[in-house]
Design goal:
- It is globular and about 35 Å long.
- Helix 2 (21-33) packs across helix 3 (45-58) and helix 5 runs antiparallel to helix 6 (143-158).
- The chain is α/β, with parallel strands linked by helices and 159 residues long.
- The chain has helices spanning 3-6, 21-33, 45-58, 114-128, 131-139, 143-158; strands spanning 7-16, 62-64, 67-68, 71-74, 81-91, 101-110.
- Strands 1, 2, 3, 4, 5 and 6 form a 6-stranded mixed β-sheet that branches.
- 38% of the residues are buried.
- The chain has one domain (3-158): 3-Layer(aba) Sandwich (Mannitol-specific EII, Chain A).
- Helices cover 45% and strands 25% of the residues.
């Protein structure tokens, strides 16, 4: 499993307009549910948002440096899906370093997929931990460039 297996072009957004953690999760859920592989899944927005917000109540997924990795386990999923967004305006996310968030990767995984869920979190976290990757994502001119930055970085790391 690598980021190229998890992130599709239609699940990447640039300059997403949100004003709260919940709205971010709602918009990213919408991206996921409208994407290839999930459009006909029968999953409900409220169920995914509810699971993600329940996870947030356990502790913020704002990991620092302007990055958030909200995630949830969802009944009825067959595999892990990831949506990535750069926000138009940073939002408060109760991050560990108290900085507002402007980069987010939302991960949904099957309820029974403990190791795949953790592996996806680890892959994305490692990628976004690099300052040079975050800088490229923050200056990407469009969603294709943002996607390519993530995937090219993944390929370079794998090589």
């Amino acid at each position: 499993m690598d980021l190229v297996d998890l992130i599709a072009r239609d699940r990447v957004a640039i300059d997403l307009k949100v004003t709260s953690k919940k709205q971010l999760v709602q918009e990213m859920t919408k991206m996921l549910l409208e994407s290839d592989g999930l459009a006909d899944s029968g999953l409900k927005t409220r169920d995914i948002v509810g699971a993600a917000m329940e996870r947030e109540r356990l502790g913020s997924t704002g990991v620092g440096s302007g990055v958030a990795l909200p995630h949830a386990r969802i009944e009825g999923l067959e595999r892990v899906f990831v949506a990535v967004a750069r926000l138009e305006t940073p939002i408060e996310f109760e991050a560990i370093d108290e900085r507002p968030v402007d980069l987010a990767a939302f991960i949904i995984a099957p309820s029974h997929a403990g190791s795949d869920h953790l592996r996806a979190l680890s892959l994305i976290s490692r990628r976004l931990r690099k300052e040079e990757v975050r800088a490229k994502l923050r200056t990407a001119p469009n969603s294709e460039s943002l996607y390519t930055t993530l995937i090219d970085e993944a390929r370079a790391t794998a090589a």
